Amino acid sequence: MKKTLALVVLTGLMLSGCATKQASSQPTATPAASGVAEHTVEVPDVVGLTLDKATDQLKDLGLKVEAKDVKDDKSIIVKKNWQVVSEDPVGKSKVTEGSTIKLGVKHLTDETPTPTPTPTPTQAPVPLVAPVAPVVESPPVVAPPVVEAPPVVAPPVAPPVVEAPPVVPPPAAVYYANCAAVRAAGAAPIHISQPGYGRHLDRDGDGWGCDK
Q: If one looks up domain 40-109 in CATH, what number appears?
């Protein structure tokens, strides 16, 4: 009796295990198996477009659009004033029709102008300046002492040379015997220096004979 009961329990367990394996081996029903085919579309690249144009392209493909301000999380009212800066999933991706495409947008007035680069100042060539030669001060010019010239003394004037009258030698052999002879010769009075003078003719001895 116990053996029969154990056999029945074992048989039941084996049958339930077979049923479980059979159930797990059955394929899971998929939408395709049920006859409903999923339609995929390629996501267009809409980065850079205004939000209104990007929304039109995506909705034309049966996709949904969810836009969000990436800067200040502002409310989006006029779509043409917003520009798409990001896209999820990115362009060229394959998604199921009806999927939601998340777009990051920014307001066109938030666009920060690109700063104009400041031109680098061109350095002017530095002129080459010749080194300045040191100024050598000349020693002061000392004027030589002024030597006063001695006064010019006129040489003494020599007294004029008085030439002595030429001594005419008396003619030889002139003789007057007396004053009468002297007068006769036209020589009276006769000087001591004249030829023919004699003491006999000059009685007073004054150097003149025959003067009286």
A: 3.30.10.20
In contact, 85 and 108? CB cutoff 8 Å: no
Task: Find out whether 41 and 97 touch, Cβ atoms under 8 Å.
Answer: yes
Which pTM was predicted? 0.36
Interior CA angle at 53 toward 48 and 55, to 5°? 100
Q: For the residues of 98-152, what is the DSSP string, one character each?
A: TPEEEEEEEEGGGPPPPPPPPPPPPPPPPPP-PPPPPPPPPPPPPPPPPPPPPPP
The pairing of strands 82-88 and 190-191 is: unpaired
Read off the pLDDT of residues 145-165 as tens digits, 9 standing for 90 and up: 777 777 777 777 777 777 766
Condensed to tens digits (0 to 9), the pLDDT of residues 164-180 reads 666 555 555 688 888 88
Q: pLDDT tens-digit profile of 30-44?
A: 444 444 457 888 999
Residues carrying CATH 3.30.10.20, the chain: 40-109
